[in-house]
TrEMBL record:
Organism: Hylemonella gracilis ATCC 19624
Taxonomic classification: Bacteria, Pseudomonadati, Pseudomonadota, Betaproteobacteria, Burkholderiales
Molecular functions (GO terms): adenylate cyclase activity
A UniProt-annotated Pfam family: CHASE2
Full protein name: Adenylate/guanylate cyclase with Chase sensor
This protein's record includes keyword Transmembrane helix: yes
């Protein structure tokens, strides 16, 4: 116990000394490793915090998309405020009243009709900046004064710094007669989505020389519905009051904008057609004591906005959503408290991910960190349901960056071009073609080249009527069932699905890889689609639901095919050119002739030799913008074999009748087509030609008529 410590050390054996040195080295190495891990953790967390404050465009784009995802795909629609109704300037009203914009006399009639329903406030998402004529303008001013509850719209212009440079509103006499003014400015984000609304805009009133606040149309609706007599703006809130009573405290961002809590897709709020109000067909209960927004819902008026729920939402519904948020107090909060929470989660999750990575094998650490990220995403979504918008992107980025650095992740770029091809084409090209593209990635390069292809367009007959007769969820379910079945048929015939256009489909053959039998594949696909529709129809009838049918157009020709867009940003492989336009018109022609599939002469010529398909000559037409006529044919099953008669009686008799027509033998043509209609009462082309021949018999065409029918519409 009294030994000199130095003597003890000196007395160590060589092996013991070596072990001691090794242990010290390991200890120092472990300590150094922990310091490196800590430094890497600090680096990762600091980098993400810096990105958060810098508002990196890339990550902010993901954050915005995650915000939209929470609305549309996670939370879904919610019940809307019952005190809001929209009077729609819709297609029905335009069809009844004529081309829009209408004379202001129609608005006078509307306000007079609304007087009996007694809405609380009427908010115009339209304005009248120029005189129409003195009498009509005076009549509208009188109608506004009589109503006493109409708010007229204004719109502001801004410079690059966001300062107001001008205002456009209605005529001074109209604004003086109205109960109020409100701005309708909607400023979308960089990606085009409208996520927020400026609840008030400060502007210099030229009449008084004072700076005033003009409320947004949605805020103005809330003011009237709440019976408020004042509102004002403070940092991060807009207040609404009646006398000394605070009615609402609306959370806004630093710029005074409300993050809109969208409650549903286009059509979420009750709509009443403008013309139905004029004609007295509107249910008064939908208008009485309501905030009634008047605005355009027809696509042709071009007042459509992109929202998280839908890319074509009428602007008036965005204003209605703002009013709904304020009246129901269902807000989305994103202020300093939410930013503090984001920073806390970035630091906590980043360091926790490093801690996990340092103590577990990489594979297990990956699973645990991913589980941690999933738990955080669940928390962020739950907070969103409570009206709190916290980041769904930055904390997970901190976790993944920590995992990469702490675990020594290495990225391997293997077969990058092949993976890009699969990612680009797998959703709309058959797996067989994708495999070929993986072997030949240059087939989908930026730009394009000239290809001979066959293009197919299809559309559902009477889908608009079907949509109007059925609830939205039924329409969507049936449309998804139909589109899924048709895509399977297209892929089974090695076609490329280019795009969906509502209920329409565009597909093509011959690109991105050449296909020698592109016309044959397209025609087989069309017959397959027709057969599948028959199966779907039987299944729908068995389920007691309404069936529908399709029509299509098919044309072969030269197109420009290739990836069109910006490399690394946004690309879409497609085909463009006159052939595509003409194929679309052939699909529309099917409605005129009452047939399922209209085929162009160029496609028929490519498959004529083998007799696999049957065709009926329909017409020779000259379309708008073209001088050369085009022969149109109906796609039919192959003609019966010789031992079965060898002919299609309808086709043969129709061809003979068509000969009379083109030879100007009107009496013979009328008699022939009349017999065809009697024997085949469901045959649309025969009925069409019978009517046409009767008209030509009464008023023959000019002497130089060449048998070509000149179409007046596209």
């Amino acid at each position: 116990m009294g030994r000199d410590t130095r003597a003890g050390k000196a007395g160590l054996s060589d092996s013991e000394a070596s072990k001691a040195r090794g242990a010290a080295k390991v200890s120092r190495g472990a300590l150094g490793g922990r310091w490196v891990s800590l430094l890497l953790a600090l680096l990762a967390v600091t980098a993400v915090v810096w990105l958060y404050y810098a508002q990196n465009d890339f990550l902010e784009g993901f954050e915005a998309r995650s915000y939209d995802l929470r609305f549309k795909s996670l939370r879904g629609p919610l019940p809307v405020q019952s005190d809001i109704t929209i009077i729609a300037i819709d297609d029905k009203s335009i069809a009844a009243l004529g081309r829009y914009p209408w004379t202001r006399q129609q608005y006078v009639r509307l306000l007079d009709k609304l007087e009996a329903s007694k809405p609380r406030v009427v908010l115009f998402d339209v304005f009248f900046p120029e005189p129409e004529n003195p009498a009509v303008d005076a009549a509208l001013a009188q109608a506004l004064a009589r109503a006493g509850n109409v708010v007229l719209a204004s719109t502001f212009s801004f410079d690059t710094q966001g300062r107001v440079t001008g205002r456009m509103g209605s005529l001074p006499a109209l604004e003086a007669a109205a109960a109020g003014r409100a701005h309708i400015n909607l400023r979308p984000e960089d990606d085009g989505v409208n996520r927020r609304n400026d609840l008030r805009i400060a502007y210099l009133d030229g009449a008084s020389g004072q700076t005033r606040l003009m409320p947004s149309l949605g805020l103005s609706a809330a003011l009237f519905m709440l019976g408020a007599d004042s509102f004002g703006a403070e940092p991060f809130r807009v207040w609404i009051a009646r006398g000394q009573e605070l009615l609402r405290s609306v959370p806004v961002n630093a710029d005074g904008a409300l993050w809109i809590n969208y409650l549903g897709s286009a059509g979420a709020y009750p709509r009443v057609s403008f013309v139905d109000v004029l004609e007295g067909r509107a249910d008064p209960a939908l208008l009485r004591d309501k905030a009634v927004f008047l605005g355009a819902t027809a696509l042709g008026v071009y007042d459509m906005r992109v929202t998280p729920f839908h890319p074509n939402t009428p602007g008036v519904e965005v204003h209605a959503a703002v009013a709904d948020n304020i009246l129901s107090q269902r807000y989305v909060h994103r202020t300093g408290m939410q930013a503090l929470f984001d920073l806390l989660m970035i630091v906590l999750i980043g360091f926790l991910s490093f801690f996990i990575t340092a103590r577990m094998r990489l594979q297990r650490a990956m699973a645990v960190v991913l589980g941690l990220v999933v738990c955080y995403l669940g928390l962020a979504y739950w907070m969103f349901l409570q009206g709190q918008w916290v980041s769904m992107v930055y904390p997970p980025v901190a976790a993944l960056l920590a995992l990469m650095l702490g675990g020594g992740w290495r990225f391997m770029v293997l077969e990058r071009s092949a993976r890009q091809m699969r990612a680009m084409f797998s959703s709309y090209v058959s797996s067989k073609l994708v495999s070929q593209l993986e072997q030949n990635p240059d087939a989908a390069r930026i730009g394009g080249d000239s290809r001979e292809v066959t293009v197919l367009f299809t559309d559902i007959k009477g889908f608009t009527t079907f949509s109007e007769r059925n609830p939205a969820e039924v329409v969507v379910d049936r449309l998804n069932e139909y589109l899924s079945a048709m895509v399977q048929i297209i892929h089974a015939h090695d076609g490329t699905v280019d795009k969906f256009m509502g209920d329409g489909i565009m597909a093509y053959w011959g690109a991105p890889l050449p296909q020698a039998d592109h016309a044959r594949l397209a025609l087989r696909c069309a017959l397959g689609m027709k057969a599948k529709m028959a199966e779907l129809t039987d299944a729908w009838r068995a389920r007691g639901v309404e069936p529908f049918q399709i029509r299509g157009g098919i044309l072969s020709g030269r197109v420009v095919a290739g990836n069109i867009g910006s490399s690394g940003q946004k690309m879409e492989y497609t085909v463009i050119g006159d052939t595509v336009n003409q194929a679309s018109r052939l699909e529309g022609a099917g409605k005129t002739y009452g047939i399922d599939f209209t085929v162009g002469e160029s496609t028929k010529r490519l498959v004529d030799a083998d007799g696999e398909f049957g065709f009926r000559r329909l017409d020779c037409v000259r379309v708008v913008g073209k001088t050369e006529p085009v022969e149109l044919f109906e796609l039919r099953p192959a003609a019966p074999s010789a031992d079965q008669g060898g002919a299609d009686p309808l086709v043969d008799r129709f061809e003979a009748a068509l000969g009379h027509y083109r030879a100007r033998r009107w009496e013979g043509a009328v008699n022939s087509f009349r017999k065809l209609v009697a024997d085949f009462p469901q045959d649309g082309p025969s009925a069409l030609y019978l009517q046409r021949c009767i008209e030509f018999q009464a008023r023959p065409p000019s002497a130089d008529w060449d048998g070509v029918f000149n179409r007046q519409e596209k």
